Structure formats: structure tokens, C-alpha cells
Amino acid sequence: MQKNSAVLVYGAYGHTGRFIVAEALRRGLRPILSGRREAALTAMAQNLPGTEIRVADVAVTTDLDAAVAGTAAVINAAGPFLDTAEPLAAAAARAGAHYLDVSAEQGSVQALFETFGSNRTPMSTAVVPAMSFYGGLADLLVTAAAREWEEIDSVTVAIGLDRWWPTPGTRITGRRNTATRLKVSESMLVPVSPQPSRHQWAFPAPIGEQTVREQPFSEMITMNRHLRARRIDNLLSETALADISDSETGAPQAVDDFGRSAQNFTVDVRLDRAGHRRELRASGRDIYQVTAPLVVEAAIRLIDGRFTGTGALAPGGAFDAADFLTALSANWLTISSPDEESAASGLAGQVPAESIR
Ligand SMILES: NC(=O)c1ccc[n+]([C@@H]2O[C@H](COP(=O)([O-])OP(=O)(O)OC[C@H]3O[C@@H](n4cnc5c(N)ncnc54)[C@H](OP(=O)(O)O)[C@@H]3O)[C@@H](O)[C@H]2O)c1
Nearest C-alpha to atom 20 of ligand 1 is from which residue? Predict the structure, then answer.
């Protein structure tokens, strides 16, 4: 029997939503464009003949039920996710559709884990929040590096960006998401210190050596959900933080055929356990665009059954992390490992050195 390939992309006309629609079409899915503004959906559909639109307001349950009806999965690209994640995930669950989003907000991910992560709400579908650059990518890298390690002494995620040109949605979300960020210390989620720690980190060219500062995103919540790590630190380039705190920094501009900006990223993960260290590195271009292949790959795996569990799942808990990253590395990520133990796991070894187009 042919699988249902209909995927509702909510927030389809946003910057990230457009990348997701393009990637879904490229991967053979049938994206249905959704969001709250009919005019924006109609204008977008004019350039995508045959594409259906469904207008829905997240505050109106009947709208959401009509929008998700008959779909195999919902990809939510409309943030702040503190406002949109729960109603859309609930509508997807009622319709028997999988739910994914691209949230970097710790609070929205925690809320989905609380609502859909317990046996109180038995369901046959999956709810996978933060299936994005911030969130899923680091979670998958750490999961792939951890392999058989059931306990980890410490995990460090260092994110290097040469620039961060924020979209309007990023700026709005930053203003909305004012809760104190959480980190894992002594196996528990605790508030980060008001004086975040700063370090030097050697990223590869073109990013190079940078000052990085403690700045946890949604990966802290997803990793804590399924990995037993005593301590997790998330570090981010200070240059990127300076870009987004400057109101004059413009939005991303397309410089290649995929619509990607000139932004380069590297995500380094370092795991320590009992004197052993494992490291993996993923590099690529444009944190907004790369979110599209990440979330679309996840949607495809949910639709064809390549996942474990039901209800709210962390990306690394739902998917075979090494297999997932290997699939992404064909086009969008360059994955490498400076340490022999991780390279021997096969993931880094399989990946061609020049995989970014
Ligand atoms: N975790 C990650 O790595 C990652 C990656 C990419 C994006 N994101 C997040 O994704 C979100 C969207 O980013 P973007 O770059 O696409 O921004 P954008 O271009 O400004 O688009 C924002 C989209 O969200 C919609 N939206 C916002 N609030 C809504 C609400 N209450 N109800 C319905 N629709 C709503 C907007 O619709 P209207 O125009 O009608 O307001 C628009 O479609 C942001 O929160 C951003 O932080 C996260």
C-alpha cells in the first residue's frame, strides 16, 4: 500500500517554512501550505501549482482539526512555539498524524514532553519537538557519539557561527522567550548562572578560534530526556550573540541556488566518560536552511516507520542517530571526528569530505 505523503507545513510562508516546503517537494512529499494568513498562503501557492492551502488559527480548534485532517504528519514552523506547539500537537494527535516542530525554546519542548510524554495520553503517533538546527542536530550528534555508553560524565556542545542574521521570527521569539535557561548539572535541570561561563574554542576554517559563551537551547531539554549525562554544557559563539543583540543586524540574504545565506556553522560535541573522550563535528551552511532537511528527513522516517516509541520523543531517542546523520551528510552536512574511537564507529568514515554543495 502506498504511504500517505500529505504533510501539513504550518507557518509555510515564513523564512524557515519556505525552506521546509521546498525540501518536502524535493523529497517527494505532498506539502499542504498552512498558516493564519490566507493572502500569504495564496500568494505562495501561486508559485507552486497544484499545492493545497489550509488557513488555520492556532486559537481555533475547529480550524486546526480541519487543517490536519487526512495528513500523515504536521511540521510546525511557526514560532514562538510557546504559542503554537501545544495546540498544533494536540490537533495532530486527535487526527492520528505525527507532529514535528523546529523549536529552539526550552519551555515549549518541556511542555510537549509533559503533555505527550506520559502514559496518561496513550497514542500511536509521535511528537518530535526541536527537530532543527538548535535542538535535533546536537542531540543526534551526541547520541551517535555515545553509542553504547549508557551513562556519560559530561557532554559539551559548542556551536560556532561566523555570523547570525536573524529572521523576524527569531527576533520575536527572543522577546517572547524570557524564561531563565536551563542546563544539566548533577543529572538535573538547573537554571544557568546569571554570569555565563566563557571559553575559547577552536572551530575549523572559515570560523576559526572563537570565544564561546554558555547559552543552552532546546537540545538541553531533548538530550536530558533520553541520555543519562551527569553534566551538559551548551556553548555558542559570542560573535553570533553580538549579531542578534544588535537591532541593526539584517535578515539573512540568499547567496546560492538553495536560497542559503553565507552563514557557516560548526557544531562540535565532546563526550567524556571515565577518562575516555568521544568527539563528533558537523559543519555546513545556513542554520535556517539546514533545519529543512533535518525536519523533512525526520518526517519521512516517521511516515515510513523508521522510529522507536510513541508520544513525545527526543530526536536522538526516536531515530537511529548515526543512520540519520549519514543520510544528511549526502548533501547538507560534513561530519568528521578528531578522535579515533568515534571515527571507528563508521559514521565519520562513511562521509565524503566534500559533501557540501
Ligand atoms: N531551532 C532552530 O534551529 C530553528 C531554526 C529555524 C527557525 N526556528 C524558529 O522558527 C520560528 C520561525 O522562524 P522563521 O525564521 O521562519 O521566521 P519568520 O520568517 O519570521 O516566520 C515566522 C512564521 O511564524 C508564523 N507565526 C508566528 N506566530 C504565529 C502564531 N501565533 N500563529 C500562527 N503563525 C504564527 C508567522 O506567521 P505570520 O506572518 O502570520 O505572523 C510566520 O509564518 C522562530 O521561532 C525561529 O526561532 C528555529
Answer: 169
